[in-house]
Amino acid sequence: MTDSAEARVLIIGWDGATFDLITPWVQQGRLPHTARLIAKGAQRQLLSTIPTLSPPAWTSLITGKNPGGHGTFDFVRRQPGTYELQTVRNHLPSLGTLFHWVSQSGKKVGVLNVPFTYPPEPVNGFMVSGLGASPQWEFTYPVELRHELLAQGYAIDFPIAYRQGNDQAYLEAVLTTTRRQADIALRLMRTRAWDLFMMVFTGIDQVLSFLWHHFDPTHPRHDPALAFLGEGVLTLHQLLDTILGEMMEVAGESATVVLVSDHGMGPLYQEVFLNNWLRSRGYLVTREMPRPATSYQRIMRRLGITREGIWRRIGRARTQAIKNRLPMSWQRLVPTEHPSLADHVDWERTRAYSFGNIGQIYINLAGREPRGIVRPGAEYRAIVDALARDLYELTEPQTGERLVDAIYLREELYDGPFVEQAPDLNIIMRNYSYITQMRRELASHELIAPSTNMSGFHRREGIFIARGPAIAGGAYAPADITAVTPTILHLMGLPIPDDMDGQVMTDLCVPDFPPPRRLSAQVQSLAQSSAPALSAQEEEEMLKRLKDLGYLA
Known about the structure:
Blueprint (H helix, E strand, L loop, with lengths): L8 E6 L4 H9 L4 H9 L1 E6 L6 H10 L3 H4 L5 E3 L6 E3 L10 H7 L4 E6 L10 E5 L10 E2 L3 H7 L15 H25 L4 E6 L1 H13 L15 H21 L4 E5 L3 E4 L2 E3 L1 H7 L10 H12 L4 H8 L1 H10 L2 H4 L9 H4 L7 E3 L5 E4 L14 H14 L12 E6 H4 L11 E5 L4 E2 L12 E3 L5 E4 L1 E7 L6 E2 L3 E2 L3 H8 L4 E2 L20 E2 L16 H14 L4
Parallel strand pairs: 1-8, 1-9, 2-20, 2-21, 5-6, 5-8, 11-16, 22-23
Antiparallel strand pairs: 2-19, 3-4, 6-7, 9-19, 10-18, 11-17, 12-13, 13-15, 14-15
């Protein structure tokens, strides 16, 4: 609701959307509102970050910065001074987001369900954090909006997690939650002033992650008797297409409308345990626990007395209540089902290790890692080169086919104050159909095993579709995901901060549109951009959510 409808920009995010599915369905007339948007506007692939994961991708999209400039590379990062892993948290005010710069110009902002925007950033309008937040936390700005949304039944996440066998119930939960989120978004669009409104729907990513095998007859897990469940993929797209039409109608015909995704999707076949390969080549050394402790833990695991086993028996809420009463030293007596990287690696003899999703390798670098042994300079470069050379020779044990498509070194991808936190090598295997999974770094003695729960995973090629008064129609060459924020600022007549990596998509602007203007960025030093750490209970809740999403197997 604003007096200057012509200045409005509506951004709709479909997490995980891919032209591989959208284009044929548009051609078949199954997505009429998406077809109308394409017919009146511009389209191109949007190339995601490497690693191709939602935390770095959405953060790059809303900041115009590569991951080296904002510091988010995965769902988890190494805790400073340790090898323990913790979930990532952005500190938006220090990053210079799209919402910050639009707010600074005096324009009104509405932001709903954008992943990894917790804690919410104070804006000239409102912000509702998405994935990475909990309804139990203060996930809105202003804070009183939280009570209003919860009273209307708003949910950040889907009410049930996918488990093999609950496919239909899971799909119905996604559809119901998506519809409710959209109704609340439409209400906010109608009742609150805004010049920029951004809403992200995460259902496509989730449904394709877990149900890909149902609609893909070539997938090894495809069962023709259950193929009807794959129809839900189209059903979800059609629901989102209807919502797209409703949001475009509220925005008005003269508004600029942008439909984006943070990455695409494709089939997932195998899980890879890179630490086993590193161990076999002598880059990583695991240590034996003292015999009594090992025997004790082995007996407890055999009896099912593990942290995960207790959660399954009595539920997470009761488990958490018990944990809150016990000192940490007692809690550590109960083993996990999978050994942790921090506890089971002999760091004084380890030169390289892997953690996280897809395939990242880190050098145990002296001066950076707490017990690093590899000296910077020539020794570091020699190990990186040797790893890359050896990895390209890695083959699939059963077929003998090469596993690695590409290896990207840190300096090839990243620039900025957070480069030192980046993976030293990013490995792409079989076009993302073979990946590592976080918190399972030492979960198997095999190199490769069938994927545990997911049958779909990310691809780098996302979508960008836009129509508006300044948009020239047509199909364009792929653009980097960092180009979205500077392009939106330019379309709103605002200057582009000079600390952004992304370039304005001037190729899709009408010829008489003014050229971009630059602005000297005036935000808090990025070196101070760490958000407050979560409490132990909040961290546990976040890890549970990542497990439900399939990223924590």
